[in-house]
Amino acid sequence: MIRIIGTAYKRDDFTPEAFMRYWLEVHGPLSARRPGLRGYVVSEVIRKIQGELETEAFVEQWFDDEDAYAQARQSAEASAAWADLERYAKPAGTFWILKEHVLIPPPLTTGSMLG
C-alpha cells in the first residue's frame, strides 16, 4: 500500500473555518469517490511548532499501489475533485508518494465523516 500526502492552502477570501468546513462538507465527499481509494484523512494545522513549511492542512490518501493511484488520477471522479478544488483552495499544494514504516500504530478510530 502507498500513501499520497500533500499540503493544502485556503483561498485568500476564505477564513480558516470556512476553508475546513467546505473541505469536510463538500470537497471531501467528492474527492472520496475516487476509485481504488483505501483511506482518506484531512489534518488541519492548529499551529506550527518549527520549520519553514507553511500550510493550512495536509491531505492523506491511501491506494493499493502506484498503478491504482494512476488509475484513480485519470478517473472522472478525480477530474471532478480537481475542478472543485479552486472553489475553496489554492492549487499550489505539494504532494509526495510515501511508503510507510509504522513504528507505533495509531489507535483505531470508529466510523468516519464520509461513511
What's the arrangement of secondary structure elements?
Elements: E1 2-10, H1 16-31, E2 39-44, E3 57-63, H2 66-73, H3 76-85, E4 89-90, E5 95-98
Antiparallel strand pairs: 1-3, 1-4, 1-5, 2-3
What do these coordinates show?
With 115 residues, the chain is α+β, with helices and mostly antiparallel strands. The protein has a single domain, classed as Alpha-Beta Plaits. It has three helices and five strands. Strands 1, 2, 3, 4 and 5 form a five-stranded antiparallel sheet that branches. The radius of gyration is 14 Å and the shape is globular. The mean pLDDT is 92.
Q: Span from first to last CA?
A: 21 Å
What name does CATH use for the topology?
Alpha-Beta Plaits
Specify the helix fraction band.
25-40%
Number of domains: 1
Beta-strand fraction estimate = 15-25%
Q: Describe the biggest sheet?
A: 5 strands, antiparallel
Give, in order, the helices and strands: EHEEHHEE
Write the CATH architecture name.
2-Layer Sandwich
Please count the beta strands (DSSP E, at least 2 residues each): 5
Low-confidence parts lasting 5 or more residues at pLDDT below 50? none
Radius of gyration: 14 Å
Count of alpha/pi helices: 3
CATH structural class: Alpha Beta
The structural class is: alpha+beta
Mean pLDDT: 92
User: What overall form do the CA principal axes indicate?
Assistant: globular
